[in-house]
Amino acid sequence: MLITDPAGEPVELDELDGDATLSVLTSLKVQARAVERDKLRVVAHWCVLHPATAEDGVATWDPSGLPGVLGQEESLGGEGCPPVAAFTPEPLAATLGISKHAVRQLIADALDLGHRLPRCRRRVEALEVEAFKARRVAQLTHPLSQAAAAQVDAALAPVLHSCSFAAIERAVAAAIAAHHPELVAEREKKGKDAWDVTLHHPGPADFAGTSWLEATGDTLDLTAFYDRVGQIAADLADAGDTDPLGARKAKALGVLARQGLNDDQPDQAPPTRPKPPRSRKPKTHLFLHFSLTELLGLGVDDTLVCGQVERLGPALEEAIASWVRTSQATITPVLDLNRCWAVDGHDIPAAMREQVVQRDKHCVHPYCATDARACDLDHITPYLPLDEGGPPGQTNPDNLAPLCRRHHRAKTSGRWRYRRDPTTGNYHWTGPHHRHYLTTPLGTLEHQPN
């Protein structure tokens, strides 16, 4: 089977070794980026050829396809984009063989990238970023103001080549909190309108003693409830229950229901179910990021103020104030992420772990976006016990990095090697085929070492 190598020459695929195969994939990646970039270029040019006029009307999102009135109808592009003439999308849809909605989305994305997200567009033009990522940014910022879009553009453009969709959503959420707190309020109200608890039983033909319970409610309440269910499931296991974790969680609901009955009522649980020991109430953790000025000003006036719920998104002061009032809140000052300190033992102190988690945010393996709170902390230079000749102070922030469990195993196996530059905070990785990567606060780069 013939394939074109990076030099443009045909080669037999079966004759390529591992390194050459990866080089071909790199070349194909760049070619694919060029094709999608050129498609955006052509669509943008098509829009230039078909400006909206009072006579022709405006192409809009109206599913009926009727022309909109210039200056009065919502055009395909976001705020600040020039409107295009009615019926501009149809020839593109026919040529590309895509639906009327898909072609309008393509036009909107091309307009938004060109007029609202210039930094992201330049990275697409330079073949540094896949067009689909830039288009996702365009779609999420489309309903926002130009100022909000500009904030997202500035935040994401430097890292767009390696950031995840979750990171894109976080950047958009931060812009919404900063520029459109009214949208956060609207979303919170819409969310509360959907709060409910429903019980579903199967029909008689399918009934086997199993039903479904669904709950939609306050984030802190449901998180605390879920943590409590998990704790009771663990207690059941300690008491001898050998059922799988999922089944024990379901049984925990029954335990909670029976705990709510009066003490003088008999326990309705069958004798085969062990009664779990009373356990300490589990701690529920939500990490809220709020400036002290905003925290002290809660409720002072009618200004909408948003904080950030780590790993979830923005929340208004009303929700945060409610969580603080009804829980044991701990206010922690901002950590000094550059603090240099060390311990001799292998175990990592909680304060040191928090410092590394906040410093690096996610797994530092190339292109991985797993949240640092879900990662192991790896000793970059493997820990050697002191009684085996190891030096003191091996456990310190400069020798620790968050790695998700999969990449921790890949490193421990010896197939991947890395080191941290304490001056820049960058991580230098070498893969099993001697390809080199640099993970930085702005994302991952392939590079050749000096």
TrEMBL record:
<protein>
    <recommendedName>
        <fullName>HNH nuclease domain-containing protein</fullName>
    </recommendedName>
</protein>
<dbReference type="InterPro" id="IPR003615">
    <property type="entry name" value="HNH_nuc"/>
</dbReference>
<dbReference type="Pfam" id="PF02720">
    <property type="entry name" value="DUF222"/>
</dbReference>
<dbReference type="InterPro" id="IPR003870">
    <property type="entry name" value="DUF222"/>
</dbReference>
<feature type="region of interest" description="Disordered">
    <location>
        <begin position="258"/>
        <end position="283"/>
    </location>
</feature>
<feature type="domain" description="HNH nuclease">
    <location>
        <begin position="351"/>
        <end position="409"/>
    </location>
</feature>
